[in-house]
Amino acid sequence: MGRQINFFMMPDDIRELDAKIKEMGLIAIESEMPTSEIVQLQSLLEGTLSKKLIISPEYLKGLNPKYYEKFQKYIINDSDASLIEFRRPYLKADEKMMKTGRLYYTIEFLNENNEFVEKPEPFIKTSEKLFRWYKSHFKNVKINSWFTTPRTSDWVKFENGKLFTNYSTQAS
Does pTM top 0.85 for this prediction? Predict the structure, then answer.
């Protein structure tokens, strides 16, 4: 079972999320790397467009990136790890187009005996706290049933930005 927030955010909104993550004692890391060394980020805006992982430093030791020959990179299996997935919205400014991003975490995972195991309570409480902060901090504005931050809403209204909710539809 998991929890998620789908969103449209501008870079300044992501910087505010960065600040909250740091204030909570969390760090951001890459989910995919060229070596098995875990790459810590200063910002969720850094690095590639691949998903980022938000994690408490105490859970770093349990991460074991696995090499995937097909992709020629190491990838962290996030299904059983105590971390929050962050996919930043893809903003193509020259085309005034943005695709949705998300925050996501699971509260349990399937172990090697096919049994559901709940993740540590401190992780769940921290994740819930971050999600509550997000919902209260970003006074989301609804555009066609999609929640956006006020900055994103202004971008749509005043700069004719387009919000793509999947590859075949758009909201504006």
Answer: yes
